[in-house]
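Support case: FE2/S2 (inorganic) cluster complex. Customer-provided input:
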Amino acid sequence: MPKITYIAVDATETVLDLPVGTSLMRGALTNDVDGIVGQCGGFAQCATCHVYVDPEDLDRLAPMEEEEDGMLDFTVCARADNSRLGCQVKVTDALDGLVVRLPESQA
Ligand code: FES
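Agent response - structure generated as follows:
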């Protein structure tokens, strides 16, 4: 299973082996990673699953859809060039070793 690392604002690292096909949001919630809320259940309608992907890893992700792009304008913490919605990023074998950073707040 692909290994995904979540880094909290206080630098706490959580490394998870996630099944292919789950989302970064679902993987975090299932494993009690603080800092991801996922209020809308993964439908790109709340932006409480905002994550920052390490810039060098961005090209390993599928491009974002229009819906995700629009919702990223409503994140609590400032959107950056490497912002993504965790619910819209599906885990694939190509993401093994991916590092995502969690924002200071989601609400
Ligand atoms: Fe609501 Fe991702 S869980 S936008």
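The chain has one domain: 3-101.

Case will auto-close in a few days if no follow-up is received.
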